[in-house]
Amino acid sequence: MFVGNFVGLIAILPFFYFSLGETMAFLTDPMSNASGRVPLLLVQGVSGLFTFIIAPILYLRIFEKKGLSQFSTIPNPPGIALLLTVAVWFSFMFLNTPIIEWNMNIDFPNFFEAFARGMEDELKDITEFLTAFDNIGQMLFGLIIIAIIPGIGEELIFRGLIQQKFYEATKNAHVAIWLTGLLFGVIHFQFYGMVPRMLLGVLFGYLYWWSGSLLLAILAHFLTNGFTLLMVYLFQQEVIEFNIDGTDEVPLSTVLISGIIFGIMFYYFFKLVKHQESHG
After folding, report:
1. Position 231 pLDDT exceeds 90
2. Could you tell me which of 200, 238, 182 has the C-alpha nearest to residue 90?
């Protein structure tokens, strides 16, 4: 993380005429500079690349003498596995909406409320600043920083490494998946979205555990971030009227139908990978 932040600092110096003083002033209060969106995204991307991708790869190679081939398989037939993963993810997004609404309106104890609300508002302001794209180029750049790098890196860290360590410690896959999901939800420090994020982490955990393919968990993670980012951009451009960051309640019928579809797709995903194991 330290190296990534340092490299990120070097990378944005050209935006500030190689003035270290101006660059540090920007990083102290980045949202005060309307043209600072791209430099801030660049710092975040470089830091994430070093912290969540390069660091675990080095750990695997140096300490566990492993490469990434263990994570790169996809169950056969790969096309069906990918389609089932997308269907499971898409139906779960709607199924998770009541949890999102409930978590947004939860009442925390007074001693924790101010801290939680302060963190939520601060991160919301930063997110809104980063995603207020001026053009399609900025949106595509944001897609790399906000969807692709976290999709790969966070899954490599949480599912590829931490979940495996929890399993080695507990010898119970379900405990490992739920503990990793809980950590995944908490570590974002957005407590008004912690539970739905934890459930997403659990979903990614089962996709990985049952299939043995980290690529499927990465795909689901990328779709989560990328779809949200695309919907935000289309709303900003007035292409669609639906605001994904709004508080509109999803109809109960939609949630129920999504739950049924999710159950069916998840069942067929499970059957697919188990059939492959039995014939492997």
Report:
1. yes
2. 200
Please give the Cα distance from 236 to 272 (Å, whole number).
40
Going by pLDDT thresholds of 50, 70 and 90, the confidence category of residue 245 is confident
Instruction: For residue 102, give Cα distances in angstroms to 19, 65, 164, 166.
Output: 47, 44, 31, 29
Clarify whether residues 91 and 211 are in a common domain.
yes
Structure tokens at 243: 């605001």
With H, G, I as helix, E, B as strand and everything else as coil, classify residue 74: coil
CB neighbour list of residue 63: distance below 8 Å, 6 or more residues apart: none
What are the tens digits of pLDDT across the range 74-121? 888 899 999 999 999 999 999 999 999 999 999 999 889 999 999 999
Specify whether 214 is located in the same domain as 85: yes
**Are the C-beta atoms of residues 247 and 124 closer than 8 Å to each other?**
no
Q: What is the dihedral of CA 66, 181, 127, 33, to 10 degrees?
A: -50
Residue 83's alpha-carbon distances to 73, 88, 269, in angstroms, are: 15, 9, 10
146: containing domain: 72-278
Confidence of residue 276 (pLDDT cuts 50, 70, 90): low
247 pLDDT above the threshold of 70: no
Reading the block at residue 212, the tokens are 């043995």
Q: Helices 37-48 and 136-143 sit at what angle, rounded to 10 degrees?
A: 20
Contacts of range 240-249, beta carbons closer than 8 Å, 24 or more positions apart:
247/101, 247/104, 249/97, 249/101
Question: Per-residue pLDDT for 149 more than 80?
Answer: yes
Overall domain count for the chain? 2
255-273 pLDDT tens trace: 999 999 999 999 999 998 8
Whether residue 43 is found in the same domain as residue 98: no
